[in-house]
């Protein structure tokens, strides 16, 4: 693409928070936006906020966001002159970029050839070597025979990685620490690469333990100018998926930093790169060396931390560059201010092996005063069809320690109901001594939590405050118990106010709350008592005085199907406490006799990937019966009891609803 390109309407070939982010960039430049959406996203905020919107197919990505023809038809129908791919989906698909340009539209990104070259890990490393960028020792040859790969593995020595050439996100990757395991690792990496990317080619690469992931943001125009916008550290990862990103990369020797930045610019110039892109490195602190990993030819999820420290709007410049504009700044104009951290907010349960969460968001109360890029709001439905990341929390401070404090403070003020999020886990990472002292690395999570991680819960004092918050929700301060129904017991001794009882759903004995005026008292089952004067629940805050000392906590009370959930800000972070009233308790007892311990049900909507049993099979409790795919992740569903399989209600390829029955067992005790 050369010269000036004119367009006034941009189709955004993506969804969720990145679609909203690109819409903001379009509005800034006076451009109209076109949203394309699937059936599952019909009511999503990014659809409502677009200037134009077109449904392009079913909920499955292959029927909508991965359908090149449907996207191009939407562009033609709406008169869009350009297409922005965002990240994920088709953003690094060279064929899609070429199809956009062949349709006479502007692709807001690099040339298709640059995408193709950097999309092949083997070709990308060859291009890096040619540009004088260090690469890890390994084998990247065309001979993909078992004999050649095993020969190269022996020469390379352990530990090494087998990696898919077309891979990403950790898929098609295997770590080999013993040469005897190499044949199986190569075979399984090939199979996963073929399944995930349609290309079984692999390469071998030396494994650098305790390494860090450092990346350089580059920006190039169509006139040959390439700048770097500094570096980021993305070393806090789980299964090669980033959790927390920060800019600049801390604890990095300045000489190494300068070489990384210069090498990234050389590589981008060598391939004629335009638009925003990221050159990723593996940094080995022990050796003081860095090695090229890959180049992401798109906008990164973590781009906001670079925007925070440079003040440069990357989406705005992507749009300007796509119009043929020259970069209006030089490398010397790029200044760096302070430190920024981004926390990926995902709908998942880290304490339960990161189980994906789906459903309707019943409460959405984000913190004020920080940047939040999000694709949801109260009433949004989190679907199993797409990635579990629903938002990004970005903070900026003068230094790293201040950014960490701001991030923790923001998380402590973030209340969400209806679906579980990973916020408490992210808080634990931020507060961990290894992260604060920068001792973490790309595979260091097991060291940080060697015994696993348990979600914090309210302590006795906070549990009492949660019960008071619910009490005030049901019986406002100053109201008479005669004005409400619910959990009030009218059997208190004469002359004393009635008491209310609230049951923690995990315990048998209730919390007793008494008082209806300016003073409330809560008594725990163990006899611990807390008294609050001037207790008030208003505007999402519980406030009052304890022992004469004023306090104010964020508190939201939300109704769930069989109980109440109290989101309460505590010294350990935001906690969620499930409480039942007397009526809830009676209903629970009335229905508890219909147990289904012998039935395996789907914990969430998803697609059945595997059924590992047949009728008549005898299984042990914990054996995997079904593998369910939801939010791009595979969930192994275990047998709830030991027994014999008597009914199978699903088959591979089926789409099932949450709580749908999958497998029926005759428990062992009956057989």
From TrEMBL:
Q: Which InterPro entries match?
A: ATP-grasp, BC-like_N, Biotin_BS, Biotin_carboxylase_complex, Biotin_carboxylation_dom, Biotin_COase_C, Biotin_lipoyl, CPAse_ATP-bd
Q: Which residues form the Biotin carboxylation domain?
A: 6-450
The Lipoyl-binding domain, residue ranges: 591-666
Domain named ATP-grasp is located at: 125-323
Give TM segment ranges: none
Q: Report whether Ligase shows up as a keyword of the record.
A: yes
Question: Which keywords does this Swiss-Prot/TrEMBL entry list?
Answer: ATP-binding, Biotin, Ligase, Nucleotide-binding
Name its co-factor(s): biotin
Q: Kindly indicate whether the keyword Hydrolase belongs to this entry.
A: no
A GO MF annotation of the entry reads:
ligase activity
CDD domains per the UniProt record, alphabetical:
biotinyl_domain
Q: From what superkingdom does this record's organism come? A: Bacteria
User: Pfam families from the xrefs?
Assistant: Biotin_carb_C (PF02785), Biotin_carb_N (PF00289), Biotin_lipoyl (PF00364), CPSase_L_D2 (PF02786)
**SUPFAM superfamilies this protein is in?**
Glutathione synthetase ATP-binding domain-like, PreATP-grasp domain, Rudiment single hybrid motif, Single hybrid motif
Official protein name in the record = Methylcrotonoyl-Coenzyme A carboxylase 1
Tell me which species this is from: Frigidibacter mobilis
């Amino acid at each position: 693409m050369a010269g000036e390109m004119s367009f006034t309407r941009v189709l955004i070939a993506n969804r969720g928070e990145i679609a909203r982010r690109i819409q903001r960039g379009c509005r800034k430049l006076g451009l109209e936006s076109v949203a394309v959406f699937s059936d599952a996203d019909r009511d999503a905020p990014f659809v409502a906020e677009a200037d134009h919107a077109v449904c392009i197919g079913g909920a499955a990505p292959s029927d909508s966001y991965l359908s090149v023809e449907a996207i191009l038809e939407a562009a033609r129908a709406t008169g869009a002159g350009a297409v922005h791919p965002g990240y994920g989906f088709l953003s690094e698909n060279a064929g899609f970029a070429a199809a956009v340009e062949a349709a006479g539209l502007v692709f807001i990104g690099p040339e298709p050839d640059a995408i193709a070259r950097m999309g092949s890990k083997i070709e990308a490393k060859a291009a890096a070597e040619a540009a004088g960028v260090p690469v890890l020792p390994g084998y990247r040859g065309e001979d993909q025979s078992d004999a050649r790969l095993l020969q190269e593995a022996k020469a390379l020595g352990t530990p090494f990685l087998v990696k898919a050439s077309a891979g990403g996100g950790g898929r098609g990757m295997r770590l080999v620490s013993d040469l005897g395991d190499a044949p199986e690792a190569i075979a399984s990496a090939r199979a996963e690469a073929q399944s995930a990317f349609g290309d079984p080619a692999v390469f071998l690469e030396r494994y650098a333990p305790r390494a860090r992931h450092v990346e350089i943001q580059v920006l190039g125009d169509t006139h040959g100018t390439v700048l770097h916008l500094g570096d980021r550290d993305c070393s806090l990862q789980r299964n090669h998926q980033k959790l927390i990103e920060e800019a600049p990369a801390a604890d990095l020797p300045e000489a190494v930093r300068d070489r990384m930045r210069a090498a990234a610019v050389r590589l981008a110039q060598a391939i004629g790169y335009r638009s925003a892109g990221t050159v990723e490195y593996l940094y080995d602190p022990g050796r003081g060396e860095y090695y090229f990993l890959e180049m992401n030819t798109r906008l990164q999820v973590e781009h906001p931390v670079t925007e925070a420290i440079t003040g440069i709007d990357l989406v705005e410049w992507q749009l300007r560059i796509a119009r043929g504009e020259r970069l209006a700044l030089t490398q010397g104009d790029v200044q760096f201010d302070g430190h920024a951290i981004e926390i990926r907010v995902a709908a998942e349960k880290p304490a339960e092996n990161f189980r994906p969460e789906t459903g309707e968001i019943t409460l959405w109360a984000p913190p004020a005063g920080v940047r939040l890029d999000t694709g949801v709001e109260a009433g949004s439905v989190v679907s199993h069809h797409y990635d579990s990341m629903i938002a990004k929390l970005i903070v900026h401070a003068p230094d790293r320690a201040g950014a960490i404090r701001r991030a923790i403070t923001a998380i402590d003020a973030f209340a969400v109901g209806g679906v579980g999020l990973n916020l408490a886990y992210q808080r634990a990472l931020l507060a961990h001594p290894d992260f604060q002292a920068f001792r973490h690395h790309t595979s260091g999570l097991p060291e940080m939590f060697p015994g696993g991680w348990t979600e914090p819960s309210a302590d006795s004092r906070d549990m009492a405050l949660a019960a008071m918050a619910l009490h005030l929700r049901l019986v406002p301060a100053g109201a008479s118990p005669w004005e409400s129904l619910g959990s009030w017991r009218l059997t208190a001794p004469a002359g004393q106010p009635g008491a209310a009882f609230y049951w923690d759903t995990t315990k048998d004995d209730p919390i007793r709350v008494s008082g209806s005026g300016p003073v409330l008292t809560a008594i725990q089952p163990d006899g611990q008592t807390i008294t609050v004067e001037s207790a008030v629940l208003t505007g999402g805050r519980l406030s009052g005085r304890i022992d004469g000392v004023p306090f104010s906590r964020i508190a939201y009370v939300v109704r769930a199907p069989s109980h109440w959930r109290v989101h309460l800000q505590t010294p350990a972070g935001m906690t969620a406490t499930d409480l039942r009233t007397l009526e809830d308790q009676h209903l629970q007892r009335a229905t508890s006799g219909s147990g289904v311990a012998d039935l395996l049900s789907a914990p969430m909507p998803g697609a059945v990937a595997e059924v590992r049993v047949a009728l008549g099979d005898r299984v042990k409790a914990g054996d995997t019966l079904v593998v369910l795919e939801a939010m791009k992740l595979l969930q192994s569903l275990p047998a709830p009891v030991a027994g014999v399989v008597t009914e199978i209600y699903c088959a591979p390829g089926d789409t099932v609803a949450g709580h749908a029955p999958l497998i029926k067992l005759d428990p062992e005790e009956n057989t």
